[in-house]
Amino acid sequence: MAKTPAKQNKQPGIEAKMQPAPEYIKDSYRASGKLSGKIALITGGDSGIGRAVSVHFAREGADLAIVYLDEDVDAKETQSLVEAFGRKCLLIKGDVKKADFCKKAVKKVVGEYGKLNVLVNNAGMQFPQKNVKAIDPEQLDTTFRTNIFAYFYFAEAAMDYMKAGDCIINTSSVTAYRSSPSLIDYSSTKGAITTFTRSLATNLVEKQIRVNAVAPGPVWTPLIVSSFDEKKIKDFGNETAMKRAGQPSELGPAYVFLASDDASFITGQVIHINGGEVVNG
Length: 281
Description:
Number of strands: 7
Radius of gyration: 17 Å
Strand content: 5-15%
Mean pLDDT: 94
Order of helices and strands: EHEHEHEHEHEHHHE
Helix content: 25-40%
Shape: globular
Largest sheet: 7 strands, parallel
Distance between the termini: 32 Å
């Protein structure tokens, strides 16, 4: 990036204000109806990776519900993108840190569509701190409640409606597999998500409900410009083997794969999309 993109001062960040704008789907993407007739709920679905998942799912024939915090402009834009493909998109605004909201959101989806086939736990926050002593109880509580408690809340609520053949996809991170010295609490939640994915998968295997995860490396999303300093934003992604950040468009197809019948023999697994970083697990 020739010019350092402007830093935003409030998480989760606004995609509409990002320059350059993230790419949410490639012009070359060709759909084949892999998710026709499916209903999907995507948390953090308004922007970044969540928008990419939403648009790819819509292209593959799914109707959607998007949960978002307060980014109305981004949410409405994603809704318009989904509807442009002839699919429905229900917007649900609220705080995923609250268990009652998560339960009500799932009920609202089922009330609107009559079922729920795919749950994508994706919403997340991060607060970089170079000194571990700077991670105060309030930050710790916010990070864990947003990044892992909410995954539990939504999964638990979804179990009242999901049936054999349905699935859950969680967004983990490369930080779950390697050191991230300025994101200690964030990377801890991502490690928890990875283990949550594996354990929930074996717990639900008899019900024939699959649970998998995607572990992104550095990806150009609103979370980046709303949480890192200007130097980190300027150099973002340079640490990968490819020497660049990924685009949300490069992750969307992995979620489609895991949500589709193509992945019918896959559960408890993590797909690593990180620009060439070698990880274990």
